[in-house]
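Long-time lurker. I teach an intro course on protein structure, and each term I like to show students one example going from raw sequence to a predicted 3D structure in token notation. This year I'd like something fresh instead of my usual example. Would anyone be willing to generate the tokens for the chain below so I can use it in lecture? Attribution to the forum is fine with me.
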Amino acid sequence: MGVPRVGTRVWRSYTERSFIMAVTKDQTIMDIITKYPDTAQVFMRYGMHCIFCEAASGETLEEALMVHGYAGKDIDDITAQINDFVEKGGQEGQTAQA
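-- Reply from a regular --
Happy to contribute to a lecture. Here you go:
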């Protein structure tokens, strides 16, 4: 029996609720924006106003956040917030504010 899929979640069992993240800190900003355009709102919230600049095409989410002064757990938290935003259909206000 295969693993049931629901949206971005991959259910491994009825008791375990793990899921594969749609966005990872290793993806480039442009890849994320191309696949999930509404995430631009989240980037803007964190002061990343140059999401469409040339650097966005080669810079990973982690690298971009580091350039903007974020590190460690902050990067993981922001990545999780982006994934929550994507999972909830990209609706404004669906993630915690910075």
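Some talking points for your students: DSSP finds four helices and two strands in the chain. The radius of gyration is 14 Å.
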